[in-house]
Amino acid sequence: MPAKASKKKKTGAVKRKASSKAVKHVYAFGKKTDGNSKMKTLLGGKGANLAEMAAIGLPVPPGFTITTEVCTHFSQTKGKYPAGLDAQVKAAVKQVEKEQGKLFGSKTDPLLFSVRSGARESMPGMMDTILNLGLNDKTVVALAKKSGNERFAWDCYRRFIQMYGDVVMGVQPRNDTEHEPFDVVMDKLKKELKIENDADLSAKNLQELVKRYKALIKQRTKKSFPQDAYDQLWGAVSAVFGSWNNERAVIYRQKYNIPSEWGTAVNVQAMVFGNMGDDCATGVAFTRDPANGEKVFYGEYLINAQGEDVVAGVRTPKPIAQLADEMPHAHKELEVVRKKLEKHFRDMQDFEFTVESNTLYMLQTRNGKRTGLAAVRIAVEMNKERLMTEKVALSKIPAESIDSLLVPIFDPKAEAASKAIAAGLPAGPGAASGHIVFSASTAEREVKAGRKVILCRVETSPEDLKGMLASEGILTSRGGVSSHAALVARQLGKVCICGASTVKIDYEKKTLIAGKTLLKEGDFISINGTSGEIFAGAIDTTDSEVKRVLEGNLKPSKSYTYRLFSTVMGWADKYRKMKVRTNADTPEMAVSAIAFGAEGIGLCRTEHMFFEGDRIDYMRQMILAGDEKERRSALKKLLPFQRKDFSGLFKAMKGLPVTIRLLDPPLHEFLPHDDTTRHQLATKLGVSRETINERMKALHEENPMLGHRGCRLGVSYPEITEMQARAIFEAAASVMKLKKPIKVSPEIMIPLVGFQAELKDQVEIVHRVAKEVMAAKKVKIAYTVGTMIEIPRAAITADEIAEVAEFFSFGTNDLTQTTLGLSRDDMGGFFDDYRNKEIFNQNPFASLDQDGVGKLVEMAAEKGRSVKKNLKLGICGEHGGDPASIKFFNSVGLNYVSCSPPRVPVARLAAAQAAL
Amino acid sequence: MPAKASKKKKTGAVKRKASSKAVKHVYAFGKKTDGNSKMKTLLGGKGANLAEMAAIGLPVPPGFTITTEVCTHFSQTKGKYPAGLDAQVKAAVKQVEKEQGKLFGSKTDPLLFSVRSGARESMPGMMDTILNLGLNDKTVVALAKKSGNERFAWDCYRRFIQMYGDVVMGVQPRNDTEHEPFDVVMDKLKKELKIENDADLSAKNLQELVKRYKALIKQRTKKSFPQDAYDQLWGAVSAVFGSWNNERAVIYRQKYNIPSEWGTAVNVQAMVFGNMGDDCATGVAFTRDPANGEKVFYGEYLINAQGEDVVAGVRTPKPIAQLADEMPHAHKELEVVRKKLEKHFRDMQDFEFTVESNTLYMLQTRNGKRTGLAAVRIAVEMNKERLMTEKVALSKIPAESIDSLLVPIFDPKAEAASKAIAAGLPAGPGAASGHIVFSASTAEREVKAGRKVILCRVETSPEDLKGMLASEGILTSRGGVSSHAALVARQLGKVCICGASTVKIDYEKKTLIAGKTLLKEGDFISINGTSGEIFAGAIDTTDSEVKRVLEGNLKPSKSYTYRLFSTVMGWADKYRKMKVRTNADTPEMAVSAIAFGAEGIGLCRTEHMFFEGDRIDYMRQMILAGDEKERRSALKKLLPFQRKDFSGLFKAMKGLPVTIRLLDPPLHEFLPHDDTTRHQLATKLGVSRETINERMKALHEENPMLGHRGCRLGVSYPEITEMQARAIFEAAASVMKLKKPIKVSPEIMIPLVGFQAELKDQVEIVHRVAKEVMAAKKVKIAYTVGTMIEIPRAAITADEIAEVAEFFSFGTNDLTQTTLGLSRDDMGGFFDDYRNKEIFNQNPFASLDQDGVGKLVEMAAEKGRSVKKNLKLGICGEHGGDPASIKFFNSVGLNYVSCSPPRVPVARLAAAQAAL
């Protein structure tokens, strides 16, 4: 979790600003092109790629980009612009006027602009866009004349007023229940005119609408709609820059760790019109299927529409294939563009186009967002097609993606037995069941209350982001694969079906009707985001294909996803330097982890073994013992259980290293918390209730996290360490003496060490017991004894500790708690505040705080190896499964990471990416 | 609390060992002298000073020292000796034989030895000693013949067998109730012979006693008493080396932070006899009074006795002045020796001597242990006498000593109203009241149960150490100022009266009788260790003379201790580099601290202000508020109280800097814990009990130490920070506008910062409020805003934090808790284990863990100053009053330490010593 300050340093965004006044703030594209695709930091993704497309000869309407630096200036000065910007913008407008042969604000042949945001990383739908800018009461007339299409001109104007009124002048619903005010005005007019479709509104009707829109703005804002083209332009530019800090953009940045310092660029581009008639169209396309990665031309378009109509999902667009029939020429051109784009950008592209009077214009291209599954498939296949090298392909797969090949799917039998009530576009693969909710806020509330929900909407909008994040899956009845719902689902890895047009959702009645089935809010629904099928009720899930192959329940040849998985894992294993182990406490977990590619156990928590059956009684007897003798007697009873646990693990691991952590939690964690169990315990142990209560009271701790636990237990009660060591070595001996002997490599790990002397104390016990057991069993066991590095003092004195330890394993969970002085259990009270104020860019328990905790890890690694050059270093905190953290651990030179069994493939991939 | 490993590095004890076999293990002293007083590390204090005395011509019986390195070898190899030692010892014995003209083990003129321990630092009574070694059934006859005193020879032999049987062969009481077995045998014989005094036993009787002693040894050990002189020597040497690790020595080392690696040397010295007749004597003397520091020849002796008799307190010795009458020649010689010693060693000396047939022999000298009061007086007076420079004198006063001039004394009126029931030797100054206990174990038990006790013993022995440590004061009825009780009291700074011979203590009846007063175990008793008077019942205590002078209640000229104090403080202020501030929350505390020399407030904890009167209700209202509005309303009520608190502090501090820490503890600490108060609160606040209970439940934390506290509160509830900042600035403004304006320098301190961003968040609020208040009040307040460094991340990212902070104050309490992962509240469960196993050499909350926490302090200081060269650095944890920690803080370059008011003088002195 790099803190704000450090990210800043990495961006270099601030550096340029210090230089002279002659800073270039505006970059042209078109016939004259200043930028290129490498300038994303300065021009944003959209601006840089518009420049690149213009440069390689694709048909891009001319325009210019105002840099991200201006955004930063704008944010820091609370709305001011750097000196000289105005002149540079004017010059750029002039250049466009020259290229287009039109004049901005002209009453005869007006040049119109679109104004769009464009950050360094795409943030679809997060910021504002304004189209048709430059129209006013005069220019609209000119446009009508020039285009010969009066209705078109007035439609453009009313759209412009609506967007500008909303985005720049803030005419928006005033609460959750109020409808979009411009829509209300339009609906009212349509009702008066008894017109149903917008398309049936005549030019006259639209003139009336414009009048009413302007009145609405005046009423709401006490200001007139601006008529001056440059006033409009600056209003729009300011609104876009301002939208960088709107709530949904901030939330989005938090989710994707985009620093607020990056800022957005603003792209001002000559308008082309997809809505000038039936020889016009607008669309969005992907060079491959972004949902499953298949190599098909994928996209959708609307005839006679503006770009925003496609994304907004107001009209359900047509699949791109139909364009071949409707506009064969444009379709052919698009196919050429598709190939050219992939060949040039060497990645799947997501692009926007407009056809104006049968002429194709490219409005944007970018690397397409894709689901995890698609990421894997595209990388593997593009490598096969020699569009990507192995290394590039590997780097193109977000490590988390591999998870989507492993997530549960609906149990095939259960799914087969269920009848789909409807189907939609499969926009986010996977299986999800949950209670139906119809609003994002309900979704959030229900999830906080512990329920799983499926968010069902006619369509989604950026305001729904939080609710979508909370839901198991998303279902929409309207909108295509490039609708907001699909876009977000793709990025969040959410199960999603969109455009299920036979589903009728009624927000007021809170019902969802599909054919004869009526479902209410709260009812269960299940969606298969891979097939697009929707089921009433809950359906059981089962293992993914990959998992079934790994566990021998499906032939590899039967599963294409398995082949994708194994190709990627093959690459990963070829390039990674770090080993990947797993955190497993039982033979079952161990077996599953080995199937996922684990190369050993990095953390076996022995305390989990004490809860089952009789053991907990003996454990409690041990804890409540009055003296060492009683304690030893209870430990004697625990010994055979522990021995059995360990021999089970050793058998399952077949000679792979097994790191066993000795008892760690404070003893009171094992005691019953309710009176009944406590009284039963008293009876079982043959002591009075008072004795039990008193001893429990004595064991109470104010801050158990910092209390009598870890090696402190072993220091106070050496007999516990003895028993555990004995169980380990006796188990090892027994497994080595089986008919088919199994090699055993136990690595015994002493937890919570802060002082060399306490480690020494424990290590001596382990060695003594090892000697005893090896002598008694006449066997030589290869074992090592090491320590957790999980409190700051251990890291600070790692050189001293390394004199005694044979390995270090970083316990980054506790190390984070102590280094940040932050209890994971108690963070709930202020975590949201810290996220909102951007003090935490991430949850430090999910992704390592590299500037703080990371420094200690680095220090400990260096100090440890200064004493023992080849000291084995690993990490067994939950960060072991987090790609960003893995990258860091690789840079520090750890030998392995250890994570939960299902995270092993992610870790393997992340380790490889880190090594590249 | 330097860990074991690091102390090792400092000693250099191990280095030499690696070299060749020709290591010198044995150092002679006498006519041939190999060592000198600078070789204490190798020869121990006693051995080095015996060599030094021999070298400057004082009459030292010849002998040799076996080095501490041999002890270390002996401990590490569990009882083995380095190669070549045997030959070196033999050669050394030969040299002594030559000088004395006697032969070791000779049947005609046997040379006898004493064998004594001697560590680098004196550990009186902690280890074993054996006298008269070399006697056996043959040599005893030769000794009798040669000395012409058969009784003397047999008395030496029986003493030797007793010591050797006890120390080397382990014939000791088998439990607490059993008497010393050799005493039992002797008592039986005396009964049989109807003899009362040992002195009345004839040579024949003693021969019988020797027979019975040998039989006792045979019976107990199944071994015969060894007859070979060299066997005896090696047995004794091994026993002394072995005694380095006996329980009482280990406890002593823990108390005085003596690393176990130091080891002890063994001194083997030709016997001289103080018990050969009435022209013989033995004694212990100090060149000045060790109890109060007065320049008088001070000591005691016994005619016709061996040295151990004096220290053991078996016979009450006579004051040294009487020797002038009894042995005028020896006394004259001693006066010469006394002056020579002080002039040569330039410090008060504690020495042992023996007069054998009117000839004086010096057996030992060392810097005398002294009480705190004596330390101060001796340093001041020796400086006046030009025996010490100012700097040396300063360095000779343990900083803690100054405390003994400040500890409470009995209230003079109450003491005058009480009648002393007895008096003894004032051996440890000060006043103590407590319940009478008669055994060390009872003392320990009672103190654990929370009672204050006075340990009353006939005499004390090393076994009583733990009990003495636990007691408020110690009273003995037997033994002089060099008795065990007096020695230990001197070192522990315990109030002590010894040799109160009119007091009759009966262990069996558990009574103490003084004249007509009978006191029982559990009764109150009061002892004045300065005057030696004993009182029945408890007496109130009052301020020390120094404190009364400082507070204007006593004229400086009336108090010699005040003049001592002010001389030492004058020196301290001249040499120290660090400022000394105080931790004070109220004007009263501030005034008291200023009297003690505090130069500002380093920590004002604002939370303490919220508990009084109505405030706690408003505080609770604030905490339980449902929203910001309710919270602000409660804060508004708290504002005037806080403002008043701060203006009080500002007035008291008269322009000295005041560091105010904003609210720190988790809010639930302010809530009531019992149901009744909770219900009253519900009524007061007009909410339901359920609401209260629910909100309290929501505030519960698993690990409050790591929870929602410190600046995290201000981040979540900026209105709290606002209110506190407003109170500070409004108070400052009001004080600056008084008729007699007072300068104000508030330093506002944000607690628990770990991230630059959170500090920034809080600093911005403070600056905003400051601006508002200054504008409203039309005044300019000079203030700074800084931060606590109290969690590891703050230290690690101190460079980032320093960009925002104007000062750092190390909160070493919390920094210790987080760096060590160690809750101070929960350490009780294992602290003893950690002390016993020497994992902790000290309580890390009392003395800074320099190798762990200290490294972070150093890192933060460096990183902070790398960004702001003159960043003000202070420390306000409890370590600010600990001399060892202060030394460290000085070395790191802190600007000030802050400690509790009564610790200010100690801190001033320690800061000066650190600077020297």
From TrEMBL, chains A, B:
GO molecular function: ATP binding; kinase activity; metal ion binding; pyruvate, phosphate dikinase activity
Residue ranges constituting the PEP-utilising enzyme mobile domain according to the UniProt record: 452-532
Superkingdom assignment: Bacteria
Keyword terms of this UniProt record: ATP-binding, Kinase, Magnesium, Metal-binding, Nucleotide-binding, Pyruvate, Transferase
Residues that bind substrate: 605, 661, 790, 811-814
Enzyme class per UniProt: transferase
Every Pyruvate phosphate dikinase AMP/ATP-binding domain range: 85-320, 332-385
Residues bound to Mg(2+): 790, 814
Domain PEP-utilising enzyme C-terminal, first and last residues per copy: 566-914
InterPro entries associated with the record: ATP_grasp_subdomain_1, PEP-util_enz_mobile_dom, PEP_util_AS, PEP_util_C, PEP_util_CS, Phosphohistidine_dom_sf, PPDK_AMP/ATP-bd, Pyruvate_phosphate_dikinase
Active site per database record: 484 (tele-phosphohistidine intermediate), 876 (proton donor)
E.C. no: 2.7.9.1
Reactions performed catalytically: pyruvate + phosphate + ATP = phosphoenolpyruvate + AMP + diphosphate + H(+)
Cross-referenced PANTHER family: PHOSPHOENOLPYRUVATE DIKINASE-RELATED, PYRUVATE, PHOSPHATE DIKINASE 1, CHLOROPLASTIC
Function: Catalyzes the reversible phosphorylation of pyruvate and phosphate.
Record-given protein name: Pyruvate, phosphate dikinase
Species for this entry: Oceanipulchritudo coccoides
